[in-house]
Structure formats: C-alpha cells, structure tokens
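Sanity check

After download, print the first record. It should look like this:
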Amino acid sequence: MYRVLMVAMVTACTAALAQPAQAQTAVAGGDLTFVVGAEVSHDSSVVFLSDTGFADEPDQSLALSGNARFRRGVGTNGRFSLSYGLTSTSYLEASSRDNLLNIVTASYSHSVGQASLGASYSKAWSSLDGDAFLELQSTSLFFGAPAPMGWVVVGRVSRTEKDFEAPLAFRDADADALGVTASRRFGATGVQMGLSFIEEDAVADILDFGGYTARGSISQPLLVMNQMITADLSLSYEERDYETFDPAIGAIRADERTRLGLTFTRDFLTGLSLEASASHRMSRSNLPSADYDQTSVGVAARYRF
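Expected structure tokens:
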C-alpha cells in the first residue's frame, strides 16, 4: 500500500523533528516522555500497490501507537533529543493492508543569541502484512531565528533516501528538499505558513520529479460547553512535474494535490487527550491511478506520562 505507507512515514518523520514539549518524567541528566494512543478511522479510498497492480476501496482501521522521547541539555546552549515511535495499523476489510511503522529520530540544536541551528537524523522502516516493505532515512540541517513583527522563521535543507523491498525496488529514490516555515501567535491564535521545494531521483527514470508544497495552518482554542477545545485547521497544496515521457499515458506525468484537514483536541490535566479529525485530499493527475479523492475521519485517545 505504497500511497498510505509513504504518507504515514513522511508525516511521522516531519512530526518527530518538530515534536512539542509533552509531560515530562525526570531522569538523570534529562527528561523522558512517553505517549501511548489508539485511533479508529474510516478512509474512503485505501490504495494497495504491489506487483499485481492497484486496488482502491473504502476501509476502516485501528492504529495503536507508542512513543518514547529523551531530551537533555548539552552545555549552556545545546540540546539533544532521541525518540522512538511505533505504530501498528490493522484494517477491517483486508488484513493484507495491515502495517507496522517504526521511526527513530536523533537531533541536536544549539542556541546562538536568539537564533538556533542544528541537525537531525530520522530512520523509519515498515512492514506490510508481516513482510518488510519500505525503509526511509532522512538527514536535515536547520536554522531558526526571530523575524520582524513577532514571526519566527525556520529554514531546513534535507536529504531523504527511500529503499523498497522487491519487487518495488525500481521505486528506490534519493530526494533533496529545501524549505522555510514562518510561525506567529496572535494572542491565543497560532498561525504557521510554509513553502518547500523538492527534487527526487529514482531508480526508474520515469519516477523522477521536481515540485513544491505550500501549506498553512491555524490553531485556535475554543470554549465549548465549558470545555476548552483546540481547533486546528490546515491546508496544503503540492505540485509535481515529472521529467520523463510516460508511454502508459502518452505524455509527461503531472500531479496536483490539495489537502484540507480539521482537528479538534481536548486536553486533560491527567495527561489524557481526546481527538476528532477529518480530512479531504484531492489528487489530480494525468496518470489514472494517481487521480483520486480521499476523505478520512477518525477519533483518537492519547495518554502522556
């Protein structure tokens, strides 16, 4: 299930490199965080890709996850972080889609005045229906600093390597990306905007592409029936322009992908959080298997300790 796993792995890598502070347990020389969770979701379009081709149909899933993260200061201005996450996803209709995702991330940042710079490394590997499927490694350098009018800007350059198991080894690829993110708070409202560019070189020349992604999000606390709930609204748009003529469609492939997401979260002082989410993805492409609409809804519970 190439599409589902690739989205999950890239999202997990990105989140791990920018994970916010959670509840902390004091340990010698640093602090330790644990998060466990469960999510039930319905997806209108789950695609399975193997050597036999594509299948596209709705399905429901249960995802169980766990994460451990250790952080400690290094000297006066440095900070080191090491985390490991595991997510097991089971599908109701077809167990052949069941997958297991692991991700390890190490990062170091150093403050220089009000600015900070650092490096990070992530490795993610997954299995599909009990068999090894995909390994992804990402190395990044980043720099962050305050900007005028209360904005904070972070720039990042990264290189990612994707390695598939046979018979999908022709999809192995190296990708170079450059991105910038700007964020600011307006009172209780948080706003974030980002723009990134990518060039990917695959084993199969027909899969080489260049593109960009623009994204934005707003986070707003709301008081609903005397309960404080956080609403997060996100929107992203991606364009990919492939470089090689595809004889299957008689043209050079071109993709446009738009995703709109909305999440409501209720945090409790005990470390428990409840979440409800919905998203809609529109993928437009002159390659029929990449032209689809996908709607997902889900509820989740997580506990931090």
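If your output differs, re-run the checksum step. Summary of this record's structure: The two ends are 33 Å apart (CA to CA).
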